[in-house]
Amino acid sequence: MGLRAAVAVHPSSGHGAAARVLDDVVARIRPVVDTLTVVSAETVAESRALMLRAKDAGLDALVVVGGDGSVHQGIQFCADHDVALGIVPAGTGNDLARALGVPTRPVAAADALAAALASGARRRIDLGRLDGGPWFGSVLCAGFDSAVNERVNRMRWPHGRRRYDLAIVAELATLKHRRLVVETEGDRVELTATMVAVGNTGYYGGGIPVCPAADPADGLLDVTVVGAAGRLDLLRILPTLRTGDHVRHRFVQTLRARRVALEPGNGWTAYADGERLGPLPVVVDCVPGALTVIG
């Protein structure tokens, strides 16, 4: 039986960018597969239902056209059903695509995917997984950065990276530290903290390398913890976030582990792949080779 693929799109991703590039993506994918289904949905429930229908009809590969939220939903499906995932970045952050070296322009990404589908190029990458919960491909965060995420999701202007920058400035005005315990198989860190990030890959927030050494093929999660930094300290740290040099700051600690527990329930909300997961505490495992990626 030939190669069976589906293209999944959330038309509103990237303020309509996903819908605008869909025809170009389909035109490049269709010639290199035997059957192609287009799954277009605006809600998570509808998207999952349509993906399952495509799986029931037989499916080897799923190509997601959209941002990190759309890719996050694709990861859940592909990891659970052993379907290969391809990414065409058309969102605001595109952080997993960036970490995996996917071309930033949607049409270029579609061309690369078509070539990989034709040649059969695949690779396995690790995923993070909450204990009894969802998978994630990039970064799980809590604290200051998750508060920024919540504010970004409420904002309608501006677009792109500037939205994150403005949300950071706004959250600095209401900065609060909380007690946090980070426990791994080899370490226990208890401190008053500003934020914590657990990375399968390095990027979040539209290209910020918060866990700059994270490798999605090493079987480990990278943890970045920021202690009780004041507003002025954070203002000094923030410019270094774009280069990854923040890990050298005296308020920053880094760990590497297979399992990470974040405790206690301190009022912080966890986000992963930019999606809201729920309040701490959480336990996260690295699952080696959990996802097949096209290309």
Walk me through what this model shows:
With 295 residues, the chain is of the alpha+beta class. The protein is built from 8 helices and 17 strands. The strands form 3 sheets. Strands 5, 6, 7, 8, 9, 12, 13, 14, 15, 16 and 17 form an 11-stranded antiparallel beta sheet that branches. The chain has a 4-stranded parallel beta sheet with strand order 2-1-3-4, with helices on both faces. Strands 10-11 form a two-stranded antiparallel sheet. Strand 1 (4-9), helix 1 and strand 2 (35-40) form a beta-alpha-beta unit. Helix 1 (17-29) packs parallel to helix 5 and helix 6 packs across helix 7. The model has no long low-confidence stretch (mean pLDDT 90).
Topology diagram in text:
Layout: E1 4-9, H1 17-29, E2 35-40, H2 44-56, E3 61-66, H3 68-81, E4 84-89, H4 95-99, H5 106-119, E5 122-130, E6 135-136, E7 139-143, H6 144-154, H7 161-172, E8 178-184, E9 188-199, E10 203-204, E11 208-209, E12 221-227, H8 231-241, E13 252-257, E14 259-263, E15 269-272, E16 275-279, E17 282-294
Parallel strand pairs: 1-2, 1-3, 3-4
Antiparallel strand pairs: 5-6, 5-17, 7-9, 7-15, 8-9, 8-14, 9-12, 10-11, 12-13, 14-17, 15-16
